[in-house]
Amino acid sequence: MRFMMLAERESVMAGMAGHRNSMRTASGGIRLAERRLLRRSKIFTPVTLNDGERDMRAHLLDIGTGGALCFTETALRRGAIVDVAWQGAQWAAEVVWIRNRRFGLRFLSPLCAATVQSVIVTPTA
């Protein structure tokens, strides 16, 4: 996959502004076209998810500033809000899609690049 330079990305986004698949939804969310431009890093890191009722063991399979790919044995529902706990840090996320035991998370507040980097480089126990 080729990553776009910032100016190129802005040009693509500006060109799509009037298109029905424009980058932002009415609620301010990020549509598929923009999410695909956000860089993800592959990892295999254990985390704990909490949906307000229970704690669940899970693994992050990739992570970026806007979201993550996750795997768990526990069933979740699309649209659920979960807290992702990792080594004392905690991030709120929405389950945006589910496929078997894998699912996509969108962080409610994007993570900073330094946080993502710390998750990538910290060895798992």
Automatic annotation (TrEMBL):
One term of GO molecular function: cyclic-di-GMP binding
Leader peptide range in chain numbering: none
Domain PilZ, chain residue ranges per copy: 35-109
Pfam families per record: PilZ (PF07238)
Protein name, entry field: PilZ domain-containing protein
